[in-house]
């Protein structure tokens, strides 16, 4: 009896800014990788999966394989926006060419990758913020309900706080620090420009102010320090909430993670560890788990 072809494992990390895919063999050797545009269910399931398919085809192509070989590939896909109502159900009924397919949130595959599949949690500090852990096979999530009602301590939250204080300084209600002067300068010292900007601004737009806030805070600006310390306390709360629910270790990830870490409380910093692997490696582990390998 002739043995069939060896299984392959494809991991996908689909986020709001881009999609990454990586193909590995049974022994964990990387065979190929691919990238494409945004892959979030906020753009619609069909649009998200178009990006996923583009990245997957690129990974197979780099490995010297055609899409016709997908029948030996076990696929794990982490997608942004999986928490939206009906998204998972719509994805799971879609036909696909793979040997098996498993879906998860982009946060969960990041968590799996960060701890090599073991129990642990992550706190993401980027444009948004949230905490997520996997403990005893259970997924635990705290925060991250979306800006401006949530995402405390995030880049968008820092930007919002800075603009609010800058407008108070413009009124003379508080002193104008160097940070607040720089924020007002972006609006040509004209609150009506800030109002017009606000009408069309997204969380990403607010987050563009975060590096400015962090730089002034690190240089001792009193308003910058006030904003960043408040944000750090929110991140402390996310870490502690995951620890209280059983996460033995936490990894801090995201574009602002290294900048905010020195501002965190000592007990929180002692709980942090570097990540073992990225979100794509977590998606590959998800594929292996689903395939029973």
Question: Would you spell out the secondary-structure blueprint of this structure?
Answer:
Elements: E1 8-14, E2 19-24, E3 30-36, H1 45-62, E4 73-79, H2 87-92, E5 100-105, H3 106-114, E6 120-125, E7 129-135, E8 138-142, H4 155-171, H5 178-186, H6 191-200, H7 203-207, H8 210-218, H9 222-244, E9 250-253, H10 257-260, H11 266-269, H12 279-291
Parallel strand pairs: 1-4, 4-5, 6-9
Antiparallel strand pairs: 1-2, 2-3, 6-7, 7-8
Helix pairs in contact: 3-12, 4-5, 4-9, 5-8, 8-9
Brief characterization of the structure:
By secondary structure, the chain is α/β, with parallel strands linked by helices.
Structural class call reads alpha/beta
CATH architecture of the largest domain: 2-Layer Sandwich
CATH superfamily of the largest domain: ATPase, nucleotide binding domain
Q: Please report the number of helical segments.
A: 12
Which series of helices and strands comes N to C? EEEHEHEHEEEHHHHHHEHHH
Index terms:
Nucleotidyltransferase, domain 5; 9 strands; 19% strand; alpha/beta; four-stranded mixed β-sheet; 293 residues
Overview of this protein structure:
The chain is an alpha/beta fold. The protein folds into 2 domains: 8-116 and 276-291, Nucleotidyltransferase, domain 5; 155-269, 2-Layer Sandwich (Nucleotidyltransferase, domain 5). Helix content is 43%, strand content 19%. It contains 12 helices and 9 strands. It has helices spanning 45-62, 87-92, 106-114, 155-171, 178-186, 191-200, 203-207, 210-218, 222-244, 257-260, 266-269, 279-291, and strands spanning 8-14, 19-24, 30-36, 73-79, 100-105, 120-125, 129-135, 138-142, 250-253. The chain has a 5-stranded mixed sheet. Strands 8-7-6-9 form a 4-stranded mixed sheet, with helices on both faces. The radius of gyration is 21 Å and the shape is elongated. 45% of the residues are buried. The mean pLDDT is 94.
């Amino acid at each position: 009896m002739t043995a069939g072809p060896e299984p392959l494992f494809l991991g996908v990390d689909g986020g709001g800014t881009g999609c990454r895919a990586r193909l590995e063999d049974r022994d964990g050797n990387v065979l190929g990788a691919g990238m494409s545009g945004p892959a979030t269910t906020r753009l619609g399931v069909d649009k998200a999966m178009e990006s996923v398919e583009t990245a997957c085809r690129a990974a197979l192509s780099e490995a010297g394989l055609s899409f016709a070989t997908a029948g030996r590939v076990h696929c794990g896909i982490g997608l942004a926006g999986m928490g939206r109502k009906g998204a998972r159900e719509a994805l799971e009924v879609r036909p696909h060419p793979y040997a098996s397919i498993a879906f998860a949130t982009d946060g969960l595959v990041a968590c799996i990758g960060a701890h090599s599949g073991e129990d642990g949690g992550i706190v993401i500090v980027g444009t948004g913020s949230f905490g997520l852990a996997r403990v005893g096979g259970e997924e635990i999530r705290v925060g991250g309900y979306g800006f401006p009602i949530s995402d405390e301590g995030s880049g968008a939250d820092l930007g919002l706080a800075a603009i609010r204080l800058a407008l108070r300084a413009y009124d003379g209600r508080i002193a104008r620090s160097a940070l607040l002067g720089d924020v007002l300068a972006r609006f040509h010292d004209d609150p009506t420009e800030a109002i017009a900007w606000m009408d069309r601004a997204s969380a990403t737009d607010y987050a563009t102010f975060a590096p400015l806030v962090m730089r002034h805070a690190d240089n001792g600006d009193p308003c910058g320090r006030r904003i960043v310390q408040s944000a750090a306390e929110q991140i402390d709360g996310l870490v502690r909430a995951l620890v209280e629910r059983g996460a033995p270790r936490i990894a801090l990830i995201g574009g602002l993670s290294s900048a905010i870490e020195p501002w965190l409380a000592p007990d929180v910093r002692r709980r942090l560890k570097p990540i073992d692997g990225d979100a794509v490696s977590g998606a590959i582990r998800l594929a292996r788990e689903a395939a029973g390998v």
